[in-house]
Each structure stands twice: as structure tokens, then as C-alpha cells.
Design goal:
The complex is a heterodimer of chains A (about 130) and B (about 140). Chain A has about 130 residues and is an alpha/beta fold. Chain A is about 40% helix and about 20% strand. In chain A, helix 1 runs parallel beside helix 2. Classes of the chains: A alpha/beta (about 130), B alpha/beta (about 140).
């Protein structure tokens, strides 16, 4: 089955981010195709490489990056939500005159159309959040 | 995009306590460009999103409620409001904005966008959808 995953909550604050990761990983292991993982609302905070969780805890951001690299997953951070919350890549830094970037490997910033397209193109849209 | 799907945006939260309502509306407006069969549902505290006369000056936040009146222009004209959610909050349809759309097949006649449905009826509408966006 072709799936699009939507992550609506930030890391560590809310279990949704963990559950979405475990679901995505399990779906891949079961042979399903991940069309896209889309990060929205505070979910965009899953995409900053500047997090430094304690050493004895899981590294949620790094875990997503590694999953994306291992399985070539398209992981999209919503641009409007990212701008509000300070998730920045090179393009956004240039456009908005910011002095730094923080996007983590494997993530890209794009528009909400990518979420709609995920809904249209996939067999299921699976949403994680309250 | 070749195939058309039935897409519903479900709104369950009050408008200003969290950003979900506003960011949901942003998805609806962007999604309108995809020419899908779009509808929206307002239930639980989500019914407060459609109340008229919202004034956000006291909380220093942008009042985005006028945007709902533009939905008809985006061809978003199936707006389901759950009857029980209104009743549980002491609200009636008169407390909500009068949302309309223009039917170009009938000489741009103005028609109501809001459809008042019971919880059971809404369940049937939900079951009929291909994609549910839940906010």
C-alpha cells in the first residue's frame, strides 16, 4: 500500500512524533511504500538538526534523518509552518534574510500542496497528532 | 492530477487556543487549487471557529474568521456543522457566520454553504470520504 504520513506534533513534547516514526519504519518493513512524510504544525520541529537530547535518550531528529537516508523517503516540512517556527534551509535563509540554517539531513522545505498531493496520490493518509 | 478524491477537512478545536484552526484553513485554501471534491466539517469546539462577531483585540492575535466567508469563492461550499456540538455549547446556526457560495450553473444564485447535520449523519458523510484531514 502507498502511504503518506502526516506528523502534526513536535519531538519530545508529544508521543505522536515517536509513534509516527515507529509506524513509518514498521510499514516499510512490511513492504509498504512511503510516498511522503509531511511535517505540519509543531511537527516541523522534528526537522531541526540543532536539537541536543540527553545522551541516554532517543535522538528523534537523527532517527528520522537516518530512516530517510536508508529508504530514500521524501520528508517535507511545510514552509508556512516552518517560517513561523524558525525551521530554515539555505533557500529560506536567503529569501527571508536569516543568518543561519537548521534543517536536518533528509528533510526539505516545501508547500502545503505537497500534503494535498500526498492525499491524492496515496492509498492512505495517516495522520499523527491530537 | 488525474483522479478526483473526496477530501474532508475536520475541524475540532476552538479557534485561538492553539494554531490548528488557522493552519487548517491554510491547507484548505492551498488545497482548493487541486480541484478535488472538498468539504469541511466543524464539530466539538471547532464550531466556535465559525461564530460571528469574533473580536481578538484583547488577546493580540489576528482575527482570521473573515477568511471563512471567502471559502465559497474557492469552491469550498460543503460545510458540515454538527448539530449536537452546537447544542452542547448553547449555540444555534444564528450564532454562526452566514456562509454562502454562488452557483454559476444557476446564474450565480447565492446558496448556503453550511449544512447542519446530526452526529449520526456526519458519521455517514465521513464514511463516504476518500481522504480525511484532521485538525
Amino acid at each position: 500500500m502507498k502511504l503518506t504520513i502526516q506528523v502534526n506534533e513536535g519531538p519530545y513534547q508529544h508521543q505522536s512524533s515517536d509513534t509516527a516514526y515507529h509506524f513509518t519504519k514498521a510499514a516499510i518493513e512490511k513492504g509498504h511504500e512511503i510516498f511522503r512524510v509531511f511535517f505540519y504544525h509543531d511537527g516541523v520541529n522534528n526537522g531541526t538538526r540543532l536539537t541536543t537530547p540527553p545522551q541516554d535518550d532517543r535522538n528523534i531528529v537523527k532517527r528520522w534523518s537516518e530512516l530517510a537516508e536508508a529508504h530514500n523517503i521524501d520528508m517535507v516540512v511545510c514552509v508556512a509552518a516552518a517560517q513561523r517556527r524558525g525551521i530554515v534551509d539555505d533557500g529560506e535563509a536567503q529569501r527571508n534574510g536569516k543568518d543561519a540554517t537548521n534543517i536536518a539531513p533528509g528533510f526539505r522545505i516545501s508547500g502545503l500542496g505537497q500534503l494535498i498531493e500526498g492525499g491524492v496520490q496515496s492509498d492512505r493518509l495517516v495522520v499523527f497528532g491530537d | 492530477m488525474s483522479d478526483t478524491k473526496k477530501m474532508m477537512y475536520i475541524n475540532r478545536r476552538a479557534p485561538y487556543g492553539t494554531i490548528y484552526a488557522w493552519e487548517s484553513l491554510e491547507v484548505v485554501l492551498i488545497g482548493a487549487a487541486f480541484e478535488q471534491d472538498v468539504s469541511m466539517a466543524f464539530l466539538d469546539d471547532g464550531v466556535y471557529q465559525l461564530t460571528k462577531g469574533q473580536d481578538t483585540k484583547g488577546i493580540g492575535m489576528k482575527n482570521f474568521s473573515p477568511t471563512y466567508a471567502a471559502l465559497g469563492d474557492y469552491e469550498v461550499n460543503k460545510i458540515y456543522v454538527e448539530k449536537e456540538s452546537l447544542e452542547e455549547r448553547g449555540l444555534t446556526l444564528d450564532d454562526l457566520q452566514h456562509l454562502v457560495w454562488e452557483d454559476e450553473d444557476e446564474d450565480y444564485a447565492e446558496k448556503d454553504s453550511i449544512r447542519l447535520v446530526t452526529r449520526a449523519e456526519l458519521a455517514d458523510v465521513l464514511a463516504d470520504q476518500d481522504v480525511l484531514f484532521n485538525f
